Structures are given as structure tokens and as C-alpha cells.
Amino acid sequence: MYGSKLLNARQLIRALNIGSTTFFKIARRKNHHGQPIPAHQLSPDSRKYYVLEEVQEWLLN
Prior knowledge:
Number of domains: 1
Helix content: 40-55%
Strand content: 5-15%
Distance between the termini: 26 Å
Strand order of the largest sheet: 1-3-2
Shape: globular
Radius of gyration: 11 Å
């Protein structure tokens, strides 16, 4: 599952073809509906992982 469906920030940046600075600026903001970027964590203290389709849908809304 990791690497194919769940992407870390670096993999997501490559998939979206954007720079890291742009990604982290986007990740700090909320979309037009006031929702933060959809992220998943395997435990409360772990890194965030992203699903490409969810992030693309979030960016379009």
C-alpha cells in the first residue's frame, strides 16, 4: 500500500509536478470550503501521508 496509494510529501510533490515550497504553502492553507488538505497518519506521532486522488479533488474544490 505504501508507495502506491499512500504517498509521502516528496512523492506527492513529484506526482503533482510542483515545487516543495509551493506544496508546503498549499498544505498550510485551507480550500474554498475551509477544509485542510486531506492527510492520513498511521499513528498520532507519525508523518502525514496523502492519497493523490483526494488531494487533487481538494485542490479543485
